[in-house]
Amino acid sequence: MSSDTYDVVEELLRRMAAGDHDRTAELFAEPVDWRLSWPAEGHPAVPWIRPRSSRAEVADHFRSLEAHHVPELNGTSVTRILVDGTHAVVLGEIAQTVRAGGTAYTSPFALHLTVEDGLITRYHIYEDSLTVARALSTRTGAQHP
User: Fold this and answer.
1) What is the pTM of this model?
2) pLDDT by residue (tens digit) across 67-78?
3) What is the 3-state secondary structure (H, E, C) of the chain?
């Protein structure tokens, strides 16, 4: 039901914004279909980019993401939530500041979620991975591609 999907998505966004990683992970099914729009090999400056399938791995993802950014400077915003049955698409802009070095970056994002029986079974996020990699690479003095 669409309202159930919308409610779960809103709760996910609330828990993510609150930095409650374990409670955020409780919203995910096991296994979860998890995908981030990055090359399969990931990027050495962005350690949270890797396959995930369990709630523990989901919580670890959000903990790692927070560890590399300044939560107080997170300006990520959601501009639209679109729901079609069990599917939802969240559109917005990521605005983060890297903890090491203080580099700020922004990236538009689209998050495709599927909610079944009250749990998130799909989490696919599409973002400007090059911008994120460059922002995190500046902390180590690495060269940009």
Assistant:
1) 0.89
2) 999 999 999 999
3) CHHHHHHHHHHHHHHHHHCCHHHHHCCEEEEEEEEECCCCCCCCCCCCCCCCCCHHHHHHHHHHHHHCECHHHCCCEEEEEEEECCEEEEEEEEEEEECCCCCEEEEEEEEEEEEECCEEEEEEEEECHHHHHHHHHCCCCCCCC
